[in-house]
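User: I need a structural model of Benzoyl-CoA 2,3-epoxidase subunit BoxB from Pseudonocardia hispaniensis for a docking pre-check later this week. Nothing fancy, just the predicted structure tokens so I can convert them on my end. Input:
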Amino acid sequence: MPIDYSEKIPNNVDLASDRRLQRALESWQPNFLTWWRTMGPALPTRDVYLRTAVDVGREGWARFGHVAMEEYRWGVFLAERGDDRRIGFGQQRGEPVWQQVPGEYRADLQRLIVIQGDTEPASVEQQRRLGETAPSLYDLRNLFQVNVEEGRHLWAMVYLLHAYFGRNGREEAEALLQRNSGDLDSPRILGAFNEQTPDWLSFFMFTYFTDRDGKYQLGTLKESAFDPLSRTCEFMLKEEAHHMFVGTTGIDRVVARTAELMREHDTDDIAPHGGIPLEVIQRYLNFHYSVSLDLFGSEQSTNAANYYTAGLKGRWQEERRRDDHQLTDDSTKMTLVKNGRLTTEEVPALLALNHDLQSEYVTDCHSGLKRWNRLLDNAGIDRHLTLPHIGFNRRVGLFADHHITPAGNLVGQDTWNAKINSWLPSAADKTHVQSLMHPVYQPGKIASWLTPPSNGINGKPLDYEYVHLA
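Assistant: Understood. Predicted structure tokens for Benzoyl-CoA 2,3-epoxidase subunit BoxB:
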């Protein structure tokens, strides 16, 4: 499925055959570019070594080259359409998927698309100023690659709103550019996307934990009976993998440098030696993991049950599940707080779909912990990073009204207040990390608080000039 780059809006959906839709999207395009100039990357550049999608098939879907970011060809790309795709779950399991929006599900589908669409520009806004403190040109390029792809993911959701939801959809598409991350009057919809990303440790944690939530949310929407949404999310998942790679390998490099400094100076307190102490990395991890868990919503949810039953939103890798894919008689075990203590209870599986997705995410997050702890083991460091308890620092869901320690103990307000700076980043932690954030723009050079990457991009050497600054 080649992408037509001769069009004003590159696409593989034959946009030219629907002149009304094409004109509507072309009228939205200048507003998007204004948003990019005002809320996108703040660091002036001439061009960046970026990958651009050329088709959505298994092979050859990315082309690399230096591109001026404002001239990046954002567009609308859907994965290839299956000839006989069937609904895989819910009451209509086995029936043909929908090419149009059924009237009874219009409001719910629009809401799902708007929430997903709102996260895409939000992360660009959160990361707007990070280029000013990039630890290398390699990292700067990766930041910009993430940014342009989040911009295209916004386009993906806006296309669906314009193409299938009429005037309401067009109004929602405009609103996606009017809300801004952290804005007091018009914030982004989900809490994690109103948090600041003020430094590169936060960026690596965000791309590891929060973009990983994005992977799982897109994975559930990929199962949708609404086929255009499914195909859109399937292609977005290809690009999302790079975002998580940036986070995984970024934290790799921070942990590796921390271990080097601990061994070199025979101390845990490496802050005076220009590194990030392991306990600070742990506190940043605790924060970003807990905030990302909130993105899954309440562990028990009638909305999630209704979406599943209707065929709007499935489970992660639905086709691999060995059950009836309707769950009307199934149950699952869930941790919750009852009578002042943590306990496990059996709950209906339909009501626990958010919990199911969250559990898949938690298992996946452990893979990063294994990597980073292996680095510490190999360096002879007898300490490990850990994931905090799922109830720690939660503002959404079953644990939101309780204080639970990283170890999983229920405590009172006084204990929580006394210990919070040992569990979450303190003002002193943030000040120290910020003090290390000095830009390194010379090709092949790297900031001293993390190690160099093991490989360049697309076979290029590490000293390649990935970004030309203005």
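Before docking, keep this in mind: The mean pLDDT is 96.
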